[in-house]
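Notes to self after the Tuesday call (sharing in case useful).
The group wants a holo model before anyone commits to mutagenesis around the pocket. I volunteered. Ligand is flavin-adenine dinucleotide. Logging inputs and output together so the record is complete.
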Amino acid sequence: MFVGELVVKSRSEVAIVGGSMAGLFTAIALKSRGFKVHIFERSTGALTNGGAGIATHDQLYDALRTAGIELRDEMGVPSKGRLMLNQKGHITHTRDMAQTMTSWGLIYRFLRAQIDEENYHSDHNLISIKSNSNSIVAAFSNGYSVEADWLIGADGSQSQVRKIVAPDVNPIYAGYLGWRGLIDERLISPKVLEQIALQVSFGMAPGGHWLGYLVAGPKDELTSGDRWYNWGWYRTADAEELSDYLTDESGKYYEGGIPRHLIRKDVINKMRKESIDHLAPQIQEIIAATRAPFLQPMYDFFSERLIFDRAILVGDAAFTARPHVGMGVSKAADDGASLAQALGSSETSALPEWERERLKYGAAVVNWGRDLGSYLGPQSEDPDAQAKAAHYITPEVLLSVTAASDPSQYL
Ligand SMILES: Cc1cc2nc3c(=O)[nH]c(=O)nc-3n(C[C@H](O)[C@H](O)[C@H](O)COP(=O)(O)OP(=O)(O)OC[C@H]3O[C@@H](n4cnc5c(N)ncnc54)[C@H](O)[C@@H]3O)c2cc1C
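Result:
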């Protein structure tokens, strides 16, 4: 059995696996309801800017407020709207949409500061869990184990908790990936920056669109000259191409995502060459200035259940939506806040009701992401699917629905 070094014995002890957005939001919500919470995170030290730029909207503000954080407009870079650049670098479409673009790191640091050091355990990589009638025991690769009343799987889209409790349900590769970059704004020429600084900028290439916007700097700086520019470019890649991109120089394959420093030079150079072939000069300049672009395969994941005896899934572990919706963080926050309410309730129906409601909501968010990405990746022969893809590739639609400032209207 397990050699327990961290043993928890009260009725309201919760072990959370994953100390990123969903783990922190859930911990804060549970803590405010009197639960004793410990977070176990695989990474060592503080997490870095995993998600980079985060587009804000009312749901995110509400979710942060519920977690006790008042995210003010000045906590991000204001964007007045969106613009589309054609290959020659001319603006072909614009759309007004006032929105604050904040950063993943800024939200993370606010949340992290609310959890005491003694309750946040870095360098704890979950390997197994075992439930019995009274408790659940989690074991980590460093030899530690923990016993708690509930175990929350907040360990992201490739969740180990989910692999254990629901081994037959797997993420579905969407047939495309996202190249991403995050650079110091000073690496962009003043002429280009002046044109795009106040807008979310888009470019269209065969196989996928590019978008970019300014976000807070590495230490949350918002002053001109100290910010970062965040960009992403969606590229179609079939399963064979994807496995090549996820293989490093030594031939090692990284399922689900390759660490950024191991992406092969020839893979990066191919992307750079394609940017010269298809994108506006302003965008080419930004991509050329990005020393270490990284890539993320796009997956859809739908859960059929969220509660497995004493193990519960939240955040991307429960449902992974494509990033076009810009709702991953607010969904993670809502999952946590509503779960804390249900776990704290004396009604026996509270938890099953929570599961029903979150299954419905999570599926709606993933389906919305599928709609937005319907023109990307392999195309169907079905006329309805083709009509949908033709709709979402239209510049006017792309500019108005991507990471929209009012996403709830689409769910
Ligand atoms: C390109 C892109 C752009 C995005 N843009 C936006 C946006 O604008 N707005 C928005 O709201 N969302 C956006 N998202 C989505 C958002 O980043 C995620 O939905 C959100 O971070 C999910 O949080 P999470 O905590 O569930 O998962 P994650 O952030 O993936 O965290 C999971 C954590 O679990 C840890 N972990 C994993 N396995 C183990 C283990 N075995 N043991 C212990 N710990 C483990 C990991 O180290 C990690 O810290 C974007 C995502 C992508 C890919």
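Two things stood out.
The first strand starts at residue 6 and ends at 7.
The pocket of flavin-adenine dinucleotide is lined by residues 17-23, 40-43, 47, 50-51, 53-55, 124-126, 154-156, 160, 178, 180, 232, 296, 315-317, 323, 326-330, 332, 403 (CB under 6 Å).
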